[in-house]
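User: Show me a protein chain along with its predicted structure.
Assistant: Here is one chain, sequence first, then structure tokens.
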Amino acid sequence: MTRTGTRLLVAGVGNIFLADDAFGPEVIRALDRRPLPPPVRVRDFGIRGMDLAYELLAGYDTAVLVDAAARGHRPGTLSLFEPDAPGRATGAAPPEAHGMDPARVLALAAHLGDEPLPRVLVLACEPEVRPRGDEDIAPGISAPVRDAVERAVAALHTMVPVLLADPAATPPLSRPDESAGLPPAALPLPVGDGAEDR
């Protein structure tokens, strides 16, 4: 049962022109075909860190950022983790407004407003192709990351009802794998090739 008034944001993060960094926007596009329940706001923020930082100040209970992130798994592995909440450093320089990694966005949101930030979870996909620093464009995502898009959509359809019922709950995923604040989990690649993740 959904709690009355629970507000949940699902935000795609990433650059559609930089190979596997397009994972977050691709998941948001796939959600057009399998929409989440109406109380959930689903939006592709791309590389607009400032927009996402302000959106995080809009009174959500929970935000799920969907992003490509290298965490040491096989390419295409999905992981769920909760980044550390940013501290409020008094007198420090404002956080960088460019860049879309979760830590920078949370630090920027904390700097911009006095409102409490929502609980933030990151549904991350291990990239296979990461652009070099000198590349402005690297179109197309790798096969393992493309295969992970539909699994991410399925994971969100599992997570969202749990988070709407209780924003503090730990959404159920396949198996415990890593720890970063919440008992996180990874979704292994489909079984069939005989390989076990990790």
